[in-house]
Design brief:
- By secondary structure, the protein is mostly beta strands.
- It has nine domains: 110 residues, Trefoil (Acidic Fibroblast Growth Factor, subunit A); 118 residues, Roll (Mannose-Binding Protein A, Chain A), CATH 3.10.100.10; 121 residues, Roll (Mannose-Binding Protein A, Chain A), CATH 3.10.100; 120 residues, Roll (Mannose-Binding Protein A, Chain A); 98 residues, Roll (Mannose-Binding Protein A, Chain A); 124 residues, Mannose-Binding Protein A, Chain A, CATH 3.10.100; 62 residues, no CATH class; 116 residues, Mannose-Binding Protein A, Chain A (Roll); and more.
- 12% of the residues lie in helices and 30% in strands.
- Strand 48 and strand 49 form a beta hairpin.
- The longest helix is centred in the last third of the chain and has 14 residues.
- The radius of gyration is 39 Å and the shape is globular.
- 40% of the residues are buried.
- It is found in: Membrane.
- This is Mannose receptor, C type 1b.
- InterPro entries: C-type_lectin-like (IPR001304), C-type_lectin-like/link_sf (IPR016186), C-type_lectin/snaclec_domain (IPR050111), C-type_lectin_CS (IPR018378), CTDL_fold (IPR016187), FN_type2_dom (IPR000562), FN_type2_sf (IPR036943), Kringle-like (IPR013806).
């Protein structure tokens, strides 16, 4: 299994005191999550009482959120409270306190070593599966009152190890611990390779890579179309692959497999700084795209049996000028020819253009054939047969590539042939008809030809010549000092390496050897901060392996095999083979050039020590590492490099580079760039590793005397209005950051008196592209006829176009809309349903809005025993119903008998259900089951109650009494007032603003609103009920009667409109109001939520850890990242045992928002159970009341389904054809054991529903 920690004992060498001693035994501690120190035996963490001198250090229950349990190292052996200058001091055995000063008792070392605590590291362990979304395991964690410091198999039916991702396991989030077992992985039917799709995870690229490595795998690499086809269709999500942008070689696979096949999406890879990692995107047929590595996405792990390294071949024989290496003969020919002509010439010599099969071949070619940095030489690699798939001309397997940065060209279909060039001999694809030199290769002869080239002149037998030096590969293993003595005895020294070519030569000699290491002459034994060669002091070239040299102190050896040529620091007492070196006989060293007066540095630049370079600190703005590098290169230099402690001091900083021995720590595997402290206070001049996307000041260096290219300043040529519109060249533009489909984006623009942008000139295109805060694709205003884009949506002609290469490209014949990309502002086509940011454009600011005069309510009353409605009175006459509101009025007064029918009559043909030929009449029901106020056909001979109608009597006063409706009584207040005034008015009457919490009371309130032909305030104001809608009397809302597009997210108070619909409004507007008195008491809400979450039917197994479901209060939630349409999501939730989630209050909103935030880089939003009826009313699928909303500002409300944004939790809408992830919800239930079958418990999961 993966080792993610290393325990140790911390002691003080001078006193022998132990930091953690229990029962007279010095206990082991280890680093764990969030910079804490865990004592595994006690399952507690090291902490202090406070951030003050003298605070005693003890063991506490672990809390990852406590700053009093977080530690860091300083100056090797000092341990401090994190971000504090408070040092751990051992005052006695097992007694420690915090001190402000440093003395002998502050130095703590790992027992048996001279290293401090940070020499041992902790690696985050990323959970697989479960419901943890790939988050790292939290150690220790508490589960069912037990503490666990490692993965456990408790309650796992398969006995597989799992962990929690939170200390207290309150939200029950867990995942399986990584294992090298490939059980459950997908197996490729022909190659036997293993694939693991982690679609429910959300990790940064480096975390995803670490997760795969923890399982003995790597992120996916794709080296041919068959692998690409196999991955296609496996997932509907964007997923990380092993694509990574290397500063020297450009795009490559992180597992070292050859980069020989290209499947980039149009416009990708993007040149944007930081877009250094690659994904497969199902939205573009699984083509590859580049993204910032800090995005959090799912990922694909890949594992295949390691390919056997080729054995080092026997040295054959070659006639001059051919050079022998590893069973082959090689010849460098500088005759300028096309690729085809060079290939023919090789054929004439019974050979082929060279195939470079591994790093050893590559090293041989650039170090032993006379290759020069100015050469450009054809090799056998080409994609002439299949565009985007590179093969060797001799049909040998492509197992190695070494591309130059920026190659192979992603979008070129003419650069079909490959050459080797430059100082490092990297590869570039070029047009095959260009003329260059070439390298040929053929099989060597097993017998001497008598005409071999003399390769080792000036060297003793057994020694190998390279340049002016002879090298000897030691045949026995020795310690570093023993090897040094052996070399010295033969008038040589342990080899130094001055440049890449020297290193490449050594790789060609030892890279294929079975031994793992060979000693070089480099070490830092005397000073951990400075490496020196045994034969000289200065180090001008290094080639470290990953995570080297770190804080290691020792001697340096060169690796072989897959990592051939890289350098590791090893204990000097290790026994390894070695490489000796001496000047060849007759060779002379090139004399140093005569000293000349060094040129001066430019103004405001300073010289770096004795080097012929100058540096400058730029602090007027901040940039990412990539942006800073590009800036330095643009002015003719590069980011600063420092090669000694002296140079560090010359810059004005006295500290050694890595003052804190926990740096560089590559925390969470995401810190890949270095910074220097320049604050002149604590640790000034020390270095730290940080995330490369961090914004900081920067230091450039440039060769002294070199002309500094002037920086181009872009002056603002536009104005910004108070409401955020940009004014440029007579038009106004608005950058809408919310992602929307075209229809929604255009509606958003039109609501603001604008339309989607039209672009009519190069200047306008550049203006919009240069708005740098707009780093994502934005929608244009194009309309397609499937063949050409002939017009803008507003009908205007197309007078300017800026299509990218291969655009417009109709891959699926549904790309009818266009976007402007951040890649130089070029345009791409997309399906109009895809969501992008957008730009609105208008010619001027809109006019002010007008207002409408209010309605005057009617006057008058009714005689005794009659009830008033508008200008009619109900009584002893058969009623005629003439419009819809009259049907509403009828059932308001039918509350005395619950299942009676009341006869009504018809006088017009406004409804379909009128008198029929069969002499049927209509009755109105008061039955709650069939629906209050519904009309039912009855025989006119049936007997029922009835309602009469007459005109209102203007001489009668308007009634002001309370009217009983079951246990409630209501009174209309005919004076208009604000909501607050209405509330106080009711309270003075011993009442409260009305709570229409059932059909009867809602119907009566609606009647009163109709009666006054205006709005009436009711008892809802979310400013008084925790930010969401509840009745102020303490009642939860169980039924809602919202109007179209209600409730508004920004309006807090609620009135019932004349049509009976609840409507939100500003509380300071004046309306009529309704007071209510009630005999009922509002129920209290429970704080106890027992029960378990269900098992996922798709992975049926029984543990008390619901598989994928996460509990919160009385419900369980399942986040599904597969992107499908809303109706399909609803059906899938039912398959899982739930429904699309409703969100009923702010706490539930916060829980769901936190659950999906980690997916914001891969998913814009997730479907929830909100849908809009044909009448425009929003409802929850599980029938919960819509009393809480969290609509995103400016959301388009015309679509039919609701979703929640992953970035900020705002609610948006979508159409039926939109594909999104989704969230399911189900009530908690009890797990009931039904019976035992063959000794196994059979269980079911029950809920109240």
């Amino acid at each position: 299994s993966f080792t993610f920690y290393s325990p140790f004992q911390l002691t003080n060498k001078d006193t022998g005191f132990c930091l953690v001693k229990i029962n007279n035994k010095c206990n082991e501690i280890r680093w764990t999550t969030d910079d804490r120190l865990l004592v595994p035996l006690r399952k507690k963490c090291l902490g202090v009482q406070g951030k003050s001198v003298g605070s005693e250090i003890n063991l506490y229950e672990c809390d990852e959120k406590s700053d009093l349990q977080k530690w860091q190292c300083r100056n090797g052996t000092l341990l401090t409270l994190k971000d504090q200058e408070l040092y751990v001091e051992l005052t006695a055995d097992t007694t420690a306190v915090l001190s402000k000063t440093v003395g002998p008792n502050n130095h703590l070392t790992i027992s048996g070593t001279s290293s401090g605590a940070c020499a041992r590291t902790y690696r985050e362990l990323f959970a697989i599966g479960g419901n943890a979304a790939g988050l790292p395991c939290m150690f220790p964690f508490q589960y069912q009152d037990q503490w666990y410091t490692d993965c456990t198999a408790v309650d796992s039916s398969e006995k597989s190890l799992w962990c929690a991702v939170e200390t207290k396991y309150q939200s029950e989030r867990w995942g399986n611990c990584p294992s090298t077992s490939k059980e459950g992985w997908t197996i490729h039917p022909t190659t036997g390779a293993y694939y693991q799709l982690n679609t429910q995870s959300a990790l940064m690229w480096s975390q995803a890579e670490a997760s795969c490595k923890q399982q003995g795998a790597s992120l996916l690499s794709i080296t041919d179309p068959h692998q690409q086809a196999y991955v296609t269709g496996k997932s509907g999500n964007k997923l990380w692959t092993g694509l990574i942008l290397d500063p020297e070689h450009g795009w490559m696979w992180s597992n070292g497999r050859p980069f020989r096949y290209l499947k980039w999406d149009s416009g990708h890879p993007l040149p944007n700084p930081g877009h250094s990692c690659g994904i497969v995107d199902p939205a573009v047929q699984y083509s590859w795209q580049s993204l910032p590595c800090s995005k959090k996405l799912g990922y694909i792990c890949y594992s295949k049996a390691a390919e056997t390294l080729p054995a080092q071949g026997m040295t054959g024989f070659c006639s001059r000028p051919w050079i022998s290496y590893n069973d082959h003969c090689f010849h460098l020919n500088r005759t300028q020819q096309t690729w085809s002509d060079a290939q023919k010439e090789c054929h004439n010599e019974r050979g082929e253009l060279v195939s470079i099969r591994n790093v050893e071949d590559q090293s041989f070619v650039i170090s032993q054939l006379g290759y020069e940095s100015t050469d450009e030489l054809w090799i056998g690699l080409n994609d002439r047969k299949t565009e985007g798939l590179f093969d060797w001309s001799d049909h040998s397997t492509v197992s190695f590539t070494s591309w130059e940065f920026g190659n192979p060209a992603a979008s070129s279909d003419i650069n079909d042939c490959v050459l080797i060039r430059g100082q490092n001999g990297n590869w570039a694809d070029r047009v095959c008809e260009e003329k260059h030199g070439s390298i040929c290769m053929k099989m060597s002869s097993s017998k001497p030809t008598g005409d071999e080239a003399q390769q080792d002149a000036g060297c003793k037998t057994g020694w190998i010549r390279h340049g002016s030096y002879c090298y000897f590969i030691g045949m026995q293993t020795k310690t570093f000092d023993e090897a040094k003595d052996v070399c010295k005895s033969s008038d040589s020294y342990l080899a130094d390496v001055s440049n890449r070519v020297d290193n490449a030569f050594l790789v060609s000699q030892v890279g294929l050897r079975p031994e793992k290491y060979f000693w070089l002459g480099l070490s830092n034994r005397e000073n951990i901060d400075q490496f020196v060669w045994t034969n000289r002091g200065s180090v001008t070239f290094t080639h470290w392996n990953a995570e080297m040299p770190g804080h290691s102190q020792g001697c340096v050896a060169m690796t072989t095999g897959y990592f051939a040529g890289l350098w590791d620091v090893l204990p000097c007492t290790n026994k390894q083979k070695y490489i000796c070196k001496h000047l060849a006989e007759g060779a002379v060293l090139t004399p140093a050039p005569p000293s000349v007066v060094s040129p001066l540095c430019a103004d405001n630049w300073n010289r770096i020590g004795l080097r012929n370079y100058c540096y400058k600190l730029f602090e007027s703005s901040k940039k990412t590492w990539f942006e800073a590098r590009d800036y330095c290169r643009a002015i003719g230099g590069d980011l600063l490099s420092i090669h000694s402690a002296d140079e560090n001091q010359i810059l004005g900083y006295s500290m050694t580079p890595y003052i804190t021995t926990d740096e560089p720590n590559n925390k969470n595997n995401v810190e890949s760039c270095a910074t220097m402290r320049t604050d002149k206070r604590r640790e000034s001049g020390s270095w730290n590793d940080v995330h490369c996307e961090t914004y900081l000041e920067w230091l450039c260096q440039i060769r002294a005397g070199k002309r500094i290219e002037p920086k181009i300043f872009h002056l603002t040529n536009y104005n910004e209005t108070g409401d955020g519109w940009l004014e440029w060249n007579g038009a106004q533009y608005f950058l809408n950051r919310q992602t929307m489909a075209v229809e929604d984006a255009r509606s958003f623009c039109q609501r603001n008196h604008a339309d989607l942008v039209t672009i009519d000139s190069e200047a306008e295109s550049v203006f919009l592209w240069k708005r740098q805060e707009f780093v994502m694709d934005v929608l244009l205003h194009y309309l397609s006829d499937f063949i050409v884009f002939s017009s803008w949506m507003d009908g205007s002609s197309v007078v300017f176009q800026r299509w990218d290469e291969d655009q417009p490209r109709f891959q699926r014949n549904d790309e009818n809309c266009a976007v402007i990309t951040p890649s130089m502002g070029f345009w791409h086509v997309y399906n109009c349903g895809y969501e992008h940011r957008s730009i609105c454009k208008r010619n001027s600011a809109p006019p002010a809005n007008a207002t409408v005069a209010p309605t005057v309510p009617p006057k008058g009353g009714c005689p005794q025993n009659w009830k008033q409605f508008e200008s009619k009175v109900r009584g002893h006459f058969l009623k005629k119903i003439v419009d819809l509101f009259y049907s509403t009025e009828q059932y308001k007064w039918m509350t005395k008998g619950k299942k009676n029918h009341f006869l009504i009559g018809f006088a017009s043909y406004y409804y379909i259900l009128y008198y029929s030929v069969s002499k049927e009449c209509a009755v109105m029901t008061t039955d709650l089951t069939s629906g209050i106020g519904k009309w039912i056909r009855k025989s006119c001979n049936d007997t029922n109650g009835y309602v009469c109608l007459r005109n209102v009597d203007s001489s009668q006063p308007t009634p002001v009494d309370y009217v009983n409706v079951f246990n409630d009584s209501f009174k209309l207040v005919p004076q208009k007032m604000t909501w607050d005034a209405a509330k106080k008015n009711c309270e003075r009457d011993g009442a409260q603003l009305a709570n229409p919490r059932n059909q009867w009371s809602q119907n009566f309130v609606e009647l009163l609103a109709l009666q006054v032909k205006g709005a009436v305030w009711i008892g809802m104001n979310k400013l008084e009920t925790g930010g969401y809608f509840r009745f102020i009397g303490g009642w939860r809302i169980t039924e809602t009667y919202w109007g179209r597009m209600e409730p508004s997210p920004h309006l807090p108070c609620v009135y019932v409109a004349e049509d009976g619909k609840w409507t939100t409004a500003e509380c300071n507007r004046t309306e009529y109001s309704i007071c209510m008195k009630t005999e009922d008491v509002a129920p209290t809400e429970s704080s106890d939520f027992p029960g378990f979450c269900p098992e996922n039917p798709e992975t049926p197994r029984y543990t008390q850890r619901g598989d994928g479901w996460i509990p919160f209060k009385g419900y369980c939630y399942l986040t599904c990242t597969d992107e499908i349409e809303w109706p399909d999501a609803s059906a899938n939730c039912m398959k899982h045992g739930g429904k699309l989630a409703s969100i009923e209050d702010p706490s539930e909103q916060e829980f769901i928002q936190n659950s999906i935030k980690q997916f914001q880089d891969s998913h814009t939003s997730f479907w929830i159970g909100l849908y809009r009826t044909h009448a425009g009313i929003w409802r929850w699928l599980d029938q919960a009341a819509v009393d809480y909303t969290n609509w995103y500002e400016g959301v388009e409300m015309r679509n039919s389904y609701g979703s929640i944004r992953a970035s900020d939790g705002g609610w948006t809408t979508g159409s039926g054809y939109h594909d999104r992830g989704y969230i399911c919800k189900t009530p908690k239930g009890e797990i009931i054991i039904l019976f035992e079958l063959n000794g196994q418990e059979c269980v079911t999961h029950c809920t109240d529903s």
